[in-house]
User: Which sequence fits this backbone?
């Protein structure tokens, strides 16, 4: 089946540093979504990207969708302790009535 | 609105026992799905439904059964529990099916099979 590869698996940062996680697909995606899961919690939707080259911002979070719609990134500027958690991308391929395929996630660990 | 409600939150089973994880949503979503989450594996789709009376298999369906008799409810049945089914299970729903809309997740059900 189709897969989205997400890197890195873990990222340790000092509070105030930036953080980026990347997702890659070998084939063109129809759309990509991003979710955040706090420790012990459930995934919560952050954003959906649909258009080639799309860039969306939510306060300190910047989401990008590649021109070829095969890759995406989430960048957090000046991390805060509230950013701790696991960030998942989830991809959908054309005609994919099956549902989203999730990446394995990036665990963000912040040292104060 | 309660959103997506899962029960039970925790369950311990012995190998070979059967059980049902309940999932209910009050948002009138047509699409509902079950995922399992294992360390280092992300979220893997077990079964999904695009509406009442319609179900289909996801990536890891073996050992699980589902039905969708109403829009609101989507129970997941473990027919004969195995230790490999020890996991955290999440039910999720969406207004639009198949990954074109935001997924709303329940709080999860942590299952241990001894």
Assistant:
């Amino acid at each position: 089946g189709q897969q989205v590869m997400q890197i890195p698996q873990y990222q340790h940062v000092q509070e105030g540093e930036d953080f980026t996680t990347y997702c890659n697909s070998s084939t063109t995606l129809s759309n990509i979504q991003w979710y955040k899961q706090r420790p012990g919690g459930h995934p919560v939707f952050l954003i959906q990207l649909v258009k080639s080259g799309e860039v969306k911002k939510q306060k300190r979070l910047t989401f990008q969708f590649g021109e070829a719609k095969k890759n995406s990134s989430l960048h957090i500027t000046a991390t805060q302790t509230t950013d701790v958690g696991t960030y998942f991308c989830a991809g959908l391929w054309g005609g994919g009535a099956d549902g989203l395929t999730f990446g394995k996630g990036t665990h963000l660990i912040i040292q104060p | 609105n309660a959103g997506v409600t899962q029960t039970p939150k925790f369950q311990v089973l012995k190998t070979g026992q059967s059980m049902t994880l309940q999932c209910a949503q009050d948002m009138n979503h047509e699409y509902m799905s079950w995922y399992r989450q294992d360390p280092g594996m992300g979220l893997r789709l077990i079964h999904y439904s695009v509406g009442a009376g319609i179900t289909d298999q996801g990536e890891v369906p073996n050992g699980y059964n589902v039905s969708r008799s109403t829009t609101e409810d989507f129970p997941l049945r473990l027919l004969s529990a195995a230790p490999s089914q020890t996991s955290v299970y999440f039910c999720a729903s969406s207004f639009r099916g198949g990954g074109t809309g935001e997924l709303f997740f329940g709080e999860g059900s942590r299952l241990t099979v001894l």
User: Anything to note?
Assistant: Chain B has a mean pLDDT of 94. The longest strand of chain B covers residues 42-51. Chain B has no helices and eleven strands. Chain B touches chain A through 27 residues (CB under 8 Å).
